[in-house]
Design a protein that fits this description.
354 residues; alpha/beta; TIM Barrel; Alpha-Beta Plaits; two-stranded antiparallel ribbon
């Protein structure tokens, strides 16, 4: 976190604590209290953006991240929803890929009390130091997480009814008003939970909140269309222009993704393109040119370039197997500036996001 970011966060926390005598909300609301009202979820539908979008269940929330400064204008509260139809090799949030709640084991926090084993009804706890959960037996009931005094086992994904989530978000409304901020929907892929969003977004907009969404673009248009009137901004990822390469890197081709980008542009909703820059995978000259030509065809002359970070790889061993680590170092900032220069030569201005 930069000095500027720390200063802004500290400023707002102090101002609201002193002038308004409010207790500032925590910087991170991971693993929300087990006492919050739970809801039901549809059957798991990983890999299919259509199945859950048409369902009536409630979304599992991975995290509520407050005081976000990089997920849209102003100070924002970012909601990470569970479920994604893509399997990007460089995923930063592998714990958000499956649509249903799951357990994660943090071996560095474990004190080997084995209280988790005493309460597990499925006999899914094993005694290995770096491997505590037999995921073939685990039903993610969460009893082991409640029994652990050291937070070594956690429930990833809390099913929340819309009213509960809206109440959590509104705790930050004063921060939104003073900074020009709002709510950002992230994931995972928010559009995997389109039915939930159709109920949530009108409730948020009733409080005149600025709403942004981050999407990988793989969704059925009939599920996005009813959400558009409530969205102020869409960040849309363009990962690779070649469909075969896109499929190899993410598990799906890009035809529907590019079509959805074009449809959003035509809808008039503000959309900003983003590209996660992964060295050796999508930073070649051919892909840069193809990305620039596509953006120009859509009337866009700017692109957010996001530096690849390998922080997500530390999360992979904590959950049931879902991705293989890339084993690459994080992208150097100088390489990101080089990408910006190469895009500039193609007529595209780059906003660097480190």
């Amino acid at each position: 976190m930069s000095v500027r970011e720390r200063s802004i966060r500290a400023q707002f926390r102090v101002v609201y604590a002193s002038k308004r005598r409010l207790k500032p909300p925590p910087l991170l609301a991971s693993n929300m209290a087990m006492s919050l009202p739970r809801a039901t979820l549809p059957d798991d539908a990983a890999g299919s953006p259509a199945m859950t979008a048409a369902g009536t269940g409630d979304a599992a929330i991975v995290d509520i991240q407050r005081f976000s400064l990089h997920d849209g204008p102003g100070i924002r509260t970012t909601i990470f929803l569970k479920g994604c139809a893509l399997r990007c090799a460089w995923c930063q949030n592998p714990e958000s890929l499956r649509i249903k709640p799951e357990m994660a084991f943090y071996s560095e926090r474990c004190r080997n009390t084995m209280r988790c084993a005493a309460v597990c009804p499925e006999d899914a706890i094993v005694g290995e130091a770096d491997h505590r959960i037999d995921f073939s037996k685990c039903t993610a009931c969460g009893l082991c997480a409640e029994a652990c005094d050291h937070d070594a086992i956690r429930l990833i994904g809390m099913p929340l009814v819309e009213e509960t989530l809206v109440a959590e978000i509104l705790k930050d409304r004063d921060f939104f008003i003073d900074s020009g901020g709002g709510v950002t929907l992230s994931g995972g892929e928010p559009m995997m939970q389109a039915a939930y969003l159709q109920r949530l977004l009108p409730r948020l907009k009733a409080h005149d909140l600025h709403i942004a969404m981050q999407t990988g673009g793989l969704f059925n248009w009939t599920h996005m269309e009813p959400l558009l009137p409530y969205l102020n901004l869409i960040y849309f990822d363009l990962k690779h222009m070649d469909s075969e390469a896109h499929k190899r890197l993410t598990g799906a081709g890009n035809e529907q993704i590019l079509e959805n980008f074009s449809r959003i542009v035509k809808s008039g909703v503000r959309v900003e393109a983003r590209m996660p820059v992964v060295p050796g995978l999508n930073d070649d000259a051919e892909n840069i040119r193809a990305t620039a030509r596509f953006l120009e065809s859509q009337g866009h002359t700017a692109l957010h370039c996001l530096a690849y970070h390998n922080l997500g790889e530390a999360k992979i061993p904590r959950i049931a197997p879902i991705l293989a680590p890339l084993g690459m170092p994080s992208l150097d900032l100088s390489a990101l500036h080089d990408m910006a220069h190469r895009f500039k030569e193609e007529g595209i201005d780059v906003i660097i996001c480190d």
